[in-house]
Amino acid sequence: IFGGRGLPNGSVQAALQILPELRLSWIDQILSRNLLKTTTTKNLQSQDLFVCFIKEFLKTFLNNFFFKAMFQTMKRMDFLNSLFSLLGEVFLKDVSCYFSLLEDGQPRDKLEFAFRLYDRDGNGVLDSSVGGLSLKYNLLPIPLRRSEMLVFDKVFSILTTPYMMTAIDADSSGTVSLQEWVEGGMNNVPLLVLLGLKMTQRDGQHLWRMKHFNKPVYCNVCQNMLLGLRKQGLCCTCCKYTVHGRCANKNPAPCSRTYVMSKKETGIAAHDWVSGNCDSGKCDRCQKKIKSLHGLTGKRCVWCHSMRHDECATQEPFECDCGPFRDHILPPWAIYPVIKVMQIQINPIADTHPLLVFVNPKSGGKQGERLCFFRDLPDYRILVCGGDGTVGWILDAIDKANLPMRPPVAVLPLGTGNDLARCLRWGGGYDGMDLGRILKDIEGSSVVPMDRWSIQVTLEDSQERGDPVPYEIINNYFSIGVDASIAHRFHTMREKHPQKFNSRMKNKLWYFEFATSETISASCKKLKECLTIECCGTQLDLSNLSLEGIAVLNIPSMHGGSNLWGEAKKSDRAEQDLPEVIIDPEVLKVSPQDMSDKRVELVGLEGAIEMGQIYTGLKSAVRLAKTSQITIRTKKPLPMQIDGEPWMQPPCTIHITHKNQASMLMGPQVKSGFFNLK
């Protein structure tokens, strides 16, 4: 599996341990396609047959989940030895792959892997014979392309810091053994940061990252300037405490506290000052400029971001107001430990709405734990930084946490389509806008309920195996037919050739190509003959329609901004309770789309060309129904998708019912015009 050079020792045994977790359909497909069709297979022994099977399995269905599980089940030493001694060399893509797999692993594992990467002669020490490391700890030229150097920027940066290697060389022998490397590395902050390893989580622990500074900056430990052309030092993400790499291990001042030690200290709002790097800032007390004196100058408060001269920091006012973002902050003087029950208690600040921010699923599976920490807070909000899939991930976590109050959720759109963010006025994608402005928009946002729908798929033939259904809940939309076919072909090609989909422009061109070929082939033509639709027991008549796709809509945006339902005509009828199902075309014309009315809209698509017309706003899809329940029965395999995740589904029965409502934050309406009119 390493560049097609064969299977490493120990991987077969590891695969045996996790085979019960693998999907039987995958195994069946491999056996039928890759093994049983060959005549040479009959002459293989059982062990050879299994090895052949594993090779074909990995070749066909290799993915991060399987690879990570296989790696974690292996013995580390056997695995590393087999990797580095297989042919006496390691290819760049292998190293890149394994560093990505080790991202969430234990620090010892990653340090061990890095050691064997540098120990090219296999003598068990890092010495002058190592290609990238000499006795003087100098970096020798390495024949790598610029793109490859960027991949290993973090790793090779380690070898450019002599003080780091000297610190690890405990016996000053000029060589570094594996034990010295691991034990020294576990306590070496710059090395852990460069390798992307997490340090021990405790109150007062800095969250370090390498940083490049564009102006003179001084170390908070030795008070000397940080010099260099690239990343000159380490900076704490939380408190902006800045140090040289060599000073990070010299017991620097702790990071800003996250809670007070007793209930008596709650409510005492005190500044948390960090010295230095306030050049050109304005003193919050005397209103004079803080001038640089070629050293640490002035103080900055971590919470309110105010700056003061050193002498002004000791004068009144001493109380911290948390600055312009007070509404979003849960300060340390609102949190205190309860010793008897061994947990942290929150004493909420009046008139605030603390903001809990989730960046992406890779931050770990602790979202439920973090939500439970906030469960007793009466008024807090959540900001999800990601795409629609990340939003769905958080909404599922809120469901599972069984919170007494469902917190409202805002979205910072970092995905591709961002349909939900568009509907909630958070935009189609983050374009580098000032985050302070986004926080102000969240402060002025309003809470709106959003329906969520359960989808249950039952196979007509229980023995038939198809792709797994990606989600059990619909947040945005569900579709069958032409659009799902294009999405499925796009998804399949991207999985097979990811290098062809490395930019937005390429993605759009590929999507256009698939849409064009779908227009010609019309693979979903005469869709009405392949399925039946019931809305609350009423069967829809599709006989007079020529459709290639249908879509069930929960929000007024699909495919990155297409409004399939369109704008509703104004109705003279007074507001009244919606019936369970509406199929009358005249009534549907004046029925607006609403994400909180416990109804979904059902529309028909006539083809790929029509989808382009809908995207440009030239027309809308065919309105079929507005209903609270849908049952769809399919008669042949059809492409489907839920919230942008496509799959191929064998004949089945699909039930869509209302699940619950999520609280979402609607962004403030954008002001426009000469006089800021809305």
TrEMBL record:
<keyword id="KW-0479">Metal-binding</keyword>
<dbReference type="GO" id="GO:0008270">
    <property type="term" value="F:zinc ion binding"/>
</dbReference>
<keyword id="KW-0808">Transferase</keyword>
<feature type="domain" description="DAGKc">
    <location>
        <begin position="364"/>
        <end position="459"/>
    </location>
</feature>
<dbReference type="Pfam" id="PF00130">
    <property type="entry name" value="C1_1"/>
</dbReference>
<dbReference type="InterPro" id="IPR047469">
    <property type="entry name" value="C1_DGKalpha_rpt2"/>
</dbReference>
<dbReference type="InterPro" id="IPR017438">
    <property type="entry name" value="ATP-NAD_kinase_N"/>
</dbReference>
<dbReference type="GO" id="GO:0005886">
    <property type="term" value="C:plasma membrane"/>
</dbReference>
<dbReference type="InterPro" id="IPR046349">
    <property type="entry name" value="C1-like_sf"/>
</dbReference>
<dbReference type="InterPro" id="IPR011992">
    <property type="entry name" value="EF-hand-dom_pair"/>
</dbReference>
<keyword id="KW-0067">ATP-binding</keyword>
<feature type="domain" description="Phorbol-ester/DAG-type">
    <location>
        <begin position="270"/>
        <end position="320"/>
    </location>
</feature>
<feature type="domain" description="Phorbol-ester/DAG-type">
    <location>
        <begin position="205"/>
        <end position="255"/>
    </location>
</feature>
<protein>
    <recommendedName>
        <fullName>Diacylglycerol kinase</fullName>
        <ecNumber>2.7.1.107</ecNumber>
    </recommendedName>
</protein>
<keyword id="KW-0863">Zinc-finger</keyword>
<dbReference type="Pfam" id="PF00609">
    <property type="entry name" value="DAGK_acc"/>
</dbReference>
<dbReference type="InterPro" id="IPR001206">
    <property type="entry name" value="Diacylglycerol_kinase_cat_dom"/>
</dbReference>
<dbReference type="InterPro" id="IPR000756">
    <property type="entry name" value="Diacylglycerol_kin_accessory"/>
</dbReference>
<dbReference type="InterPro" id="IPR002219">
    <property type="entry name" value="PKC_DAG/PE"/>
</dbReference>
<keyword id="KW-0677">Repeat</keyword>
<keyword id="KW-0547">Nucleotide-binding</keyword>
<dbReference type="GO" id="GO:0005829">
    <property type="term" value="C:cytosol"/>
</dbReference>
<keyword id="KW-0007">Acetylation</keyword>
<dbReference type="InterPro" id="IPR038199">
    <property type="entry name" value="DGK_typeI_N_sf"/>
</dbReference>
<comment type="subunit">
    <text>Monomer.</text>
</comment>
<dbReference type="InterPro" id="IPR002048">
    <property type="entry name" value="EF_hand_dom"/>
</dbReference>
<keyword id="KW-0862">Zinc</keyword>
<comment type="similarity">
    <text>Belongs to the eukaryotic diacylglycerol kinase family.</text>
</comment>
<keyword id="KW-0106">Calcium</keyword>
<dbReference type="InterPro" id="IPR037607">
    <property type="entry name" value="DGK"/>
</dbReference>
<dbReference type="GO" id="GO:0005509">
    <property type="term" value="F:calcium ion binding"/>
</dbReference>
<dbReference type="GO" id="GO:0047649">
    <property type="term" value="F:alkylglycerol kinase activity"/>
</dbReference>
<dbReference type="Pfam" id="PF00781">
    <property type="entry name" value="DAGK_cat"/>
</dbReference>
<feature type="domain" description="EF-hand">
    <location>
        <begin position="106"/>
        <end position="141"/>
    </location>
</feature>
<dbReference type="InterPro" id="IPR018247">
    <property type="entry name" value="EF_Hand_1_Ca_BS"/>
</dbReference>
<dbReference type="InterPro" id="IPR016064">
    <property type="entry name" value="NAD/diacylglycerol_kinase_sf"/>
</dbReference>
<dbReference type="GO" id="GO:0005524">
    <property type="term" value="F:ATP binding"/>
</dbReference>
<dbReference type="GO" id="GO:0046486">
    <property type="term" value="P:glycerolipid metabolic process"/>
</dbReference>
<keyword id="KW-0418">Kinase</keyword>
<dbReference type="GO" id="GO:0007200">
    <property type="term" value="P:phospholipase C-activating G protein-coupled receptor signaling pathway"/>
</dbReference>
<dbReference type="GO" id="GO:0004143">
    <property type="term" value="F:ATP-dependent diacylglycerol kinase activity"/>
</dbReference>
<keyword id="KW-0443">Lipid metabolism</keyword>
